[in-house]
Amino acid sequence: MFRKLLKIVGFLILMVFIIGTLAFTSHETKNIICRNIVIDFNDEDIIQVNKDEILRLVNLADNQILNKTLDQINSDIIEKEVEKHQAILNAEVYELITKDSSSYKGVLVVKVNHREPVVRIMSETGSYYLDKFGDKIPISANYTANVLVSTGYFTEKYASEQLLPFILYVEKDEFWKAQIEQVHIEKDGDIILTPLVGGHFIELGNLDKYQEKLRNMKAFYEQVLAKNNWNKYSTVSLKYNNQVIAKRR
What we know:
This protein is of the alpha/beta class. Helices cover 35% and strands 31% of the residues. The protein has two domains: 32-114, membrane protein fhac (Ubiquitin-like (UB roll)), CATH 3.10.20.310; 117-248, Rossmann fold (3-Layer(aba) Sandwich), CATH 3.40.50.11690.
């Protein structure tokens, strides 16, 4: 009985200590001034917006952050302003309190997730990247992305609605992702693929049944080109149903 009572008293003392500490901390940090803004993102992101540019966006939302207490800063407004940048998928803004030997200091953290490009578009209607959602990412001197390139004559609508599903199919296939380096769309809508290996072009035709066409082409690689025939052909056409027509040099 005495041991049980001792445990209860000990628990009550602990709770009083915790409540007192929280109250003290709340009082000490109530008027903490923001002293620093930290920009944070993954260093392995394919595209990276310059930290100075992100800081500029933060200051557009509120250029008095370093003179405010943490509870005066509107994180939602800052997030919305940063997310206006087309290369940024989303942003998370939050406040931190740090303590040195003598005082508390406030820090505003801006954590950014960049969009991930899957194709570089270079058409008559413009030059930009597309991510897997079909959203445009502007070209910038501050970043480059080693992704599949698509050139030729097509609209932004064609790029996002018709071409992008084909690009994503290629990206998911380990073989074709390594083999295709450029997709060119001609004026009549036919597609020419430039392989990385082999001195030939692939005439895909239009995008109808492209999965089947690529399966046939892969079989041609395995059965014909793999036997030291990589440089014997100038073009391989997949335009016609269930046919692979190779033209010799």
